[in-house]
Each structure stands twice: as C-alpha cells, then as structure tokens.
Design brief:
By secondary structure, the chain is an alpha/beta fold. The protein is 23% helix and 26% strand. It folds into two domains: 203 residues, FAD/NAD(P)-binding domain; 114 residues, FAD/NAD(P)-binding domain, CATH 3.50.50.
Length: 325
C-alpha cells in the first residue's frame, strides 16, 4: 500500500498535519503505536488544560467546553470528532519500527496489534511522535519494581496506602492533591527548594497549603536513594530517612524518543538535543522527513505545546505540496 505521505504519531499535531495534507489532495496515513490521542489518553483522568478551547482547535472545527478551560475527556471527544469528520486514515496500535529508503521512495516498516509485520510506501514522512512515551528515570535501585508508577491516572486504587510522589511541577502537585483527598497518605519528594512557581495558579496555593498544615508530608532538596518493596530510602538535608511505602509515583517528566529519531538520520544540536530543521519547511537533515510538534524543540519541551504545534501541519503540507507538484 502506497501513500504520498505517512505521519508517525496520532496526537493533535499529527492529526493537524494529516488534515492539511488531505486538504491539498495528498494521500496520507497516520500511524500510532497506541490509540488515537494516546498521550492525552494517558493524562490524569480529571486533568484540566491550562488553555482555552479555541487554542486547541485543529482543522477549523470549533471546540467547546462546559467551563472556561477544557478537560481531558472533552479534548478526547473533540479530537475523535475531528478525525471522524475528515475521515482520517489512522492506523491505531501499529508501531513504526523503521523507515528505509530515500526522499520520494520511503518504505515504512510497522508491526500491527497482532504482532504481524507490515510495510507501506511513501514519498514523504512526517514525525510527530511527541515526548510523552518515554518517562524520565529516577536513577535509583528498585525503580523497576511494579510499585513504581510513571503515569498517574486516578487516585482511587491508592486509598489507605502510603504513597510517595516524586517531583515538584504540575503533574506531581496534581497527583499529590488527588491522592491525599482520596485517602492516601502522601509524601512528596523533590530535589528543588519548593513547589515550582510554574505550577498552575489554581493548584500551587492548594498544594502549598496542604504541605504547610502537614496534610501532605514534603521533603525538598531531597532525592530517593533506593526503592524497596515496603519502604523507600530518601536523602534529605537532615540526613537519610527510611519511609514506609506502598507505591511511588515518579512525576519527573518525559522526553522525546531521541534514539528512534537518530536511527532515522535526524541530526541534533549536542547540548539542547534540538533537531536540525529548515525553519521554513520543518524538513529535517534527512531529506524528505519532516518534524512536527514538540520534538522540534528537543529537550526544551516547554517551548512547544498543542497551541503552537498545531500550526506545523500547514507549513509542512505546503512544502510537501510544492515538492510533489
């Protein structure tokens, strides 16, 4: 099966790219190793976006929400509706293993959800793989135990449990608050001096107050030394502690799959891990392969969000349309 373009990643940016390509008559398939909007699906169940609905819109389809800021469920529903409206050709649960060939004659090798190998021809490739699939590691013995969780979803299963939340940004603050309010005994551990000033303005006072009154125990300028089946060892300014523990939530961020990109000829700046792209077309160092969304920013993942990454699609589609003309 052959396409003019293949998009790797079925998040908002990948869908926006597919829509813009389709509008220009360019046959397109989108592949994702998970479900449609896999990253947003893995967000906390009750997460609220930090932005307003119109800044999440793609394809010219209006987005509405009950409150000023949309939540995860509303976003999933909206993007499903957009994919359905444009009849996008999305291959869910089909992992792209490697991309062979050259500009105008790529061969995309995948593994489908049944474990069967597949291959597709494509003139152009767009990589919109995001950064949420690879969690940052703690670097402590025991972090591969089943009790260590890198994707927080919801608090109910941890009622009555002793849990540690590692981190000091939005995801850690939200997890700590929800777990506390659902009956977990929460200890927050963070290398920094305190909760980050970048935490959402309606979340930060809440977590600060819970810590101040002792409802959430907090250890700042601290790190986990070891994770054991029934406890954790923590280095603190006051000395080493052993804390009773049932679950550890490692909310310390995520990173792009640099290894996958490098295997496919993407060249990076050594310090920032920012990939080379043409500023006008977003074409990478490997001719015919374009980058879209947060991976364009390298390790500076706070520079590109859905709000600005969604515009990469039109820029790339214009460049591909000119090339294929």
């Amino acid at each position: 099966m052959n396409f003019d373009a293949v998009v790797v990643g079925a998040g908002p940016t990948g869908l926006a790219c597919a829509i813009e390509l389709q509008r220009r008559g360019i046959s397109t398939a989108v592949f994702d190793k998970g479900c449609l909007l896999n990253s947003i699906y893995n967000y906390p169940t009750h997460m609220v976006f930090f932005t307003t609905p119109e800044l999440l819109e793609i394809g010219g389809i209006p987005m509405t929400s009950i409150r000023e800021k949309p939540n995860r469920t509303e976003a999933l529903k909206y993007y499903r509706r957009v994919a359905e409206h444009y009849h996008l050709n999305v291959h869910q649960y089909e992992r792209v293993e490697r991309i062979d060939g050259n500009d105008g004659a790529f061969l995309v090798h995948t593994t489908d959800r049944n474990g069967c190998p597949q291959s597709y021809g494509a003139h152009k490739i767009i990589l919109a793989t995001g950064y949420y699939d690879l969690p940052n590691r703690l670097g402590a013995p025991g972090e591969d135990l089943d009790k260590v969780i890198f994707y927080y979803k919801e608090p109910h299963p941890y009622f009555g449990m002793d849990v540690a939340v590692v981190g000091g940004n939005n995801s850690a603050a939200i997890a700590a608050l929800e777990l506390h309010r659902s009956g977990a005994r929460v200890t927050l551990i963070h290398r920094g001096e305190g909760i980050s000033s970048h935490v959402k303005y309606w979340i930060k006072p809440d977590i600060d107050n819970r810590i101040q009154c002792g409802e959430v125990q907090a250890h700042f300028r601290s790190r986990i030394l070891e994770i054991r089946p029934e406890s954790i060892r923590v280095a603190t300014p006051q000395g080493e502690l052993e804390i009773k523990n049932d679950f550890v939530f490692a909310m310390i961020g995520y990173r792009p799959d640099v290894e996958f990109l490098a295997r496919h000829g993407i060249v990076f700046e050594p310090e920032t891990q920012r990939p080379y792209t043409d500023p006008e077309t977003l074409e990478s160092h490997r001719q015919g392969i374009y980058l879209a969304g947060v991976i364009v920013a390298g390790m500076h993942t706070n520079e590109i969000f859905i709000e600005n990454g969604r515009f990469h699609g039109a820029k790339i589609a214009e460049a591909i349309a000119r090339s294929l003309a």
